[in-house]
């Protein structure tokens, strides 16, 4: 289906601002994870892939010993509401591990809640969460993240891994998407 007409609006976070914040976040994550037994850092795909790549390399520079895995959660739309399902599971046996889930954006909170429940059910000793962006005004389930890059208003954003209709993930900055129905 073709995407409705839209434009890329203002830059909310430029490349320099993102890199500075990612550096700070990785430092905070590293301090918390250093010394923990069997650390597994999990990317909640797909929008997190650029953020995740930057975070894990910062953690590596800081000397954190970790394993890496990937989880994909998706939704299918039924008659009444959309239901989440696991699309791709992690491969590592995380029983007894300290897991850090890295996601792009915390919106309604459903995906991250689903992912955390799943990882706990697989036997993780601890499950922690890190998101680049948080949109608290959109929350429908009581989910917070332990580490947050930036808090934003209810605006759809693209870039730095985030997409609209599979486009704009490659942008080094994060920009707002403006739709025709938006107030001027
Ligand atoms: P929930 O609602 O489960 O969903 O917290 C989080 C996922 O929704 C997508 N999402 C966005 N993707 N720009 C995007 O490119 C946005 O502004 C946006 N808001 C939510 C994203 O995949 C995220 O992981």
Summarize the helices and strands and which ones pair or pack.
Blueprint: E1 7-13, H1 15-33, E2 39-45, H2 49-61, E3 67-77, E4 82-88, E5 98-106, H3 110-121, E6 126-134, E7 147-151, E8 157-158, E9 174-178
Parallel strand pairs: 2-3, 2-5, 5-6, 6-7
Antiparallel strand pairs: 1-9, 3-4, 8-9
Helix pairs in contact: 1-2
Distance between the termini: 26 Å
The shape, in one word, is globular
Which H/E pattern describes the elements?
EHEHEEEHEEEE
Bound molecules: xanthosine-5'-monophosphate
Work out the radius of gyration.
17 Å
Global structural class = alpha/beta
Name the strands of the widest sheet in spatial order.
4-3-2-5-6-7
Description:
There is one protein chain. Helices cover 24% and strands 34% of the residues. It is an alpha/beta fold and 184 residues long. The strands form two sheets. A six-stranded mixed β-sheet has the order 4-3-2-5-6-7, sandwiched between helices. A three-stranded antiparallel β-sheet has the order 1-9-8. α1 packs across α2 (49-61). It is globular. Xanthosine-5'-monophosphate (XMP) binds at residues 47, 103-112, 156-158, 162-163.
